[in-house]
Design brief:
By secondary structure, the chain is mostly beta strands. The protein has three helices and 31 strands.
């Protein structure tokens, strides 16, 4: 009899557990109110000169659920009409009701969505509330028209300064870190490179950072490419001309080589036999060939020192240049060029060629038909 009673009790308990489990399974999550989002602007033109200032401010309200649950919020931005594929997601706090995105942040979002700069484009924006890794609830969708900008590499990439006695003749100021040529770090890794132009032999220079003399570096006195901060000596450019300089700020090393550029090719008057050299313009701080005849049946390249070791080229594949339109150029020794591409023009005629080498993160080439 006792055994029968025990079996009965076990059965009752089992039934109770199963009933409770069933009730748990029957609990459903109800989205009792949708999230909401609005913006203080419907149109914005992004501006790099105020990159760190708020461009658009969003106001949002959390969705509500029964029963109360923990969830995470983000704002999702996509091109209008794309059904949010692809999109960029920015996390926002559940404990606040507003947040802002700066001109720089929005411009980076536009770039990640492969939106061309300087063109107004409509974007869809919504609040996304994630309950778990697979379940999300969405707010209303708002639209904001935004115009992005092409980032100025002078502001994007870290740089050091090269003050010296040569700088005034190059269009800057002598021995002034705040008004001197710069070497940039395209890899943002404390390795800097770039060009300076020297008019007089034995001109001297040093390296500084933050456009100030604090922490300036010069040669250790052995003139073997070693930098020191204390007891440093000025570095000398033995010859007049253009110098290509590399500096490892962390390793305290530097190198400097002559790099006088010219144009050569069967599209030029002298063919592959000789170069037509650039001259430096201190007013524009660019290298210029004021007039050269170019054919539309040949190609041309830019090389240094009448040699093929150092060349300015397209990134890959021959490139047809358009009069008056600047393009980014690349240097083979920096590992940014594939194969051995050349330049060409679609129309024969006399051209002005301008090569802007002031920023190693964005060399710029412009040809203009005369």
């Amino acid at each position: 009899m006792k055994n029968i009673f025990k079996i009965f009790i076990v059965g009752v308990i089992a039934s109770f557990i199963i009933s409770c489990a069933k009730e748990d399974e029957d609990i459903q999550l109800n989205n009792t109110s949708q999230g909401k989002i609005s913006a203080n602007k419907t149109t914005v033109v992004l501006d790099e000169t105020i990159a760190d200032q708020a461009a658009v401010t969003f106001t949002y309200a959390n969705p509500t659920f029964t029963p109360n649950i923990v969830f995470s919020n983000s704002v999702e931005i996509s091109i209008d009409g794309s059904n949010f594929t692809p999109s960029v997601i920015t996390p926002v706090s559940m404990d606040q009701s507003t947040f802002s995105l700066t001109h720089l942040e929005l411009n980076n979002i536009l770039a990640s969505l492969n939106v061309a700069p300087n063109i107004a484009k409509a974007f869809e924006i919504r609040l996304k509330s994630n309950v778990n890794s697979v379940t999300a609830y969405y707010s209303n969708v708002i639209k904001v028209t935004m115009t992005g900008y092409m980032p100025n590499p002078d502001l994007v990439f870290p740089k050091i300064n090269v003050p010296g006695g040569y700088a005034g003749a190059a269009g800057y100021a002598d021995w002034n870190p705040a008004n001197a040529p710069n070497l940039f770090s395209p890899g943002k890794n404390n390795k800097y490179r770039g060009f300076i132009y020297v008019t007089n032999p034995n001109s001297e220079y040093k390296f500084t950072i933050n456009q100030d003399w604090a922490g300036d570096k010069g040669d250790d006195g052995t003139f073997t490419g070693k930098l020191v901060e204390a007891g440093e000596q000025n570095i000398k450019a033995a010859l007049a001309g253009t110098y290509y300089i590399n500096v490892d700020w962390t390793a305290n090393t530097y190198s400097s080589v002559i790099a006088n550029f010219g144009v050569i090719g069967d599209a030029t008057p002298t063919g592959w036999g000789s170069d037509t050299d650039f001259t430096y313009n201190p007013t524009t701080k660019t290298f210029v060939i004021n007039s050269i005849a170019l054919s539309n049946t040949g190609i041309f390249k830019f090389r240094a020192n009448d040699d093929w070791a150092m060349k300015i080229q397209p990134a890959n594949g021959d490139q047809t240049l358009v009069s008056g339109t600047s393009v980014q150029a690349f240097m083979n020794t920096e590992g940014t060029v594939t194969d051995d591409p050349s330049y060409k023009v679609s129309q024969a005629g006399n051209y002005k060629i301008e090569l802007d080498l002031h920023n190693s993160a964005y060399y710029k080439l412009t040809i203009t038909k005369l």
